[in-house]
Write a structure and sequence with these properties.
Blueprint (H helix, E strand, L loop, with lengths): L5 H8 L3 E7 L5 E10 L4 E6 L3 H8 L2 E7 L7 E12 L3 H13 L13 E15 L3
Antiparallel strand pairs: 1-2, 1-4, 2-3, 3-6, 4-5, 5-6
C-alpha cells in the first residue's frame, strides 16, 4: 500500500473538496464531488447506501480520488488510486464530523430518516501529486 506524505494528507484534512471516480457496470467512469477526510492512514469520505457510487464500489472496488487546494487550485493537488473498503461502524459520527468541518454545524443537516451512512476508506496503490503536495 502506498502512503501519503504529510503534505498530501493535509489536503484531505483541510476544508477541500474531492472528486471521486468509480466504475459503472458498462465500464465508463462515474465522478462525483465529496467531502474528504484522512484517518491517519488512508483517505476517506462518507456517503449513504443506495447511492450510485456505493453500488458501483460493491461490484468493483477500484476507485480514484483527487483533492486540490481550494484556496489556490493551481498550487497543489493529490490524486489517489486504489481500492475501496466500505465501513459501517462510526459512519453517523463521521458525517457529523464532516458537517462540522464543511458547514460549521454539529450535526449533518441533510440526513434522511431511513438513510444508512457508510465510510469509504481508500487503500492507496498509486499516488500522484503536484505543487506543494508533491
Amino acid at each position: 500500500m502506498a502512503k501519503l506524505t504529510e503534505k498530501q494528507a493535509r489536503l484531505f484534512r483541510d476544508k477541500n473538496w474531492g472528486n471521486v471516480a468509480t466504475i459503472r457496470p458498462d465500464g465508463s467512469p462515474h465522478v462525483t464531488p465529496v467531502w474528504v477526510d484522512f484517518d491517519g492512514e488512508v483517505p476517506l469520505f462518507n456517503t449513504a447506501y443506495g447511492r450510485a457510487k456505493v453500488e458501483y464500489l460493491k461490484r468493483d472496488p477500484r476507485i480514484a480520488i483527487e483533492v486540490h487546494d481550494e484556496a489556490d487550485p493551481q498550487r497543489a493537488y493529490v490524486s489517489v488510486s486504489g481500492t475501496a473498503e466500505l465501513v459501517d461502524e462510526g459512519a453517523d459520527e463521521h458525517i457529523d464530523k464532516l458537517a462540522k468541518k464543511y458547514l460549521g454545524v454539529d450535526r449533518y443537516p441533510y440526513r434522511k430518516p431511513d438513510e444508512k451512512r457508510v465510510i469509504v476508506r481508500i487503500r492507496p496503490q498509486l499516488i500522484d501529486a503536484y505543487g506543494k503536495a508533491a
